[in-house]
Amino acid sequence: MQNNKQAPRWRAISLLLISCALFGAAMPSRQEEDDETRRLWNRKFQKEREDAEKLRRDAQAPTGKPKPPAPARPKAKPGAARGVELDDQLIGVTIWRLRPASAGDSRLLVDEKSAASNQLGLYEHERTTVEALFKEGERLRISVEAPRADDNYIYVIDREIYREKGKEILREPDLIFPSRSTPIGESKVSAGKSVYVPAQNDQIPYFTLQRSDKDHVGESVIIIISPKPLPVNVEQPAIQPAMLAQWERQCGGQAERRETRGGAGKPRTKEERDADENNRKLVQGDPLPQTIYRVRAPLGACAMVSIPLRITP
After folding, report:
1. Integer Cα distance of 127 and 148 in angstroms
2. Cα separation of 147 and 138, whole Å?
3. Are 181 and 199 within 8 A, CB to CB?
4. Tag placement on the chain: N or C end, fewer CB within 10 Å?
């Protein structure tokens, strides 16, 4: 009799468990949500590249022929100038590991004369994620693209990260891009126009991760995309902390990022290499940045992200 009385209760519990299981199965996983977010950002990047390519083709069209109207661009709403209207500002970043090239790479070893004028000819670029751990002595480059219609200025600031008494301390900021050797016009970024830091024609076209002492655990790389030039001086790369704090207030905001799934370890494509050498722009079907950041910043204003590069013990 007791078992018969409990049967309805167990049936109710079973139905509840089944309902919960079905509800859980219907809910998208965190991974699925991340992938969908990345797909949305990818589409925005691709659309901006497509629009930029159309504008370039229209500008090169023979005179006398009517030009199609330029793609419509979003305009700031009232209040945007006061920082009220926020927009999703995207910044694409790819960190490239450099390793010695081999005969099977997409870029073969070059002759000594060419290698002397272009040190990068002896290295192959491989994608990596911002969460990667780097060994001391590794050589790196960073490429940046922003899906903006017009050229925007790009600034890259570095701060050494030290661990002292169990806490991480940031040292004084220094401007590392643009530099004195940056060609005129090469410090601007837009949709389809990627900027490599350091530039390939810099005296040393890559970063080498080196510790200054045992407490030096990494570098904080700050990237700023701005429609207007910032008051910097490449002859005096030291940045005043108060000035950086002001830029953080103006350009910083809530940020999130998404990685390209399975992109780490892939070599650079011919299209990406040609873009680095200023032989072409990136277009809709070309590879997208490995990491995309979304910053909630005022519409049409500057945007900033900070990337920690960790050095293994």
Report:
1. 23
2. 30
3. yes
4. N
pTM of the full structure: 0.80
Element containing residue 144 per DSSP (H, E): strand 139-145
**Burial of residue 238, with CB atoms counted within 10 A of its CB: 0-12 exposed, 13-18 middle, 19 or more buried:** exposed
Task: Collapse the DSSP code of 74 into the 3-class scheme (helix H, G, I; strand E, B; otherwise coil) and give the result.
Answer: coil
**pLDDT tens per residue, the chain (313 residues)?**
445 555 566 665 666 666 555 555 555 677 888 899 999 999 999 999 999 999 888 887 776 555 555 555 555 443 333 444 557 899 999 999 999 877 554 433 333 333 334 667 788 999 999 999 999 999 999 999 999 989 999 999 999 999 998 899 999 999 999 998 887 778 999 999 999 999 888 888 899 999 999 999 999 999 999 999 999 999 999 999 999 999 999 998 889 999 999 999 999 999 999 999 888 999 989 999 999 999 988 777 899 999 999 999 8
Q: Which two tokens stand for residue 163?
A: 């661990």
- Beta pairing class for 167-170 and 152-164: antiparallel
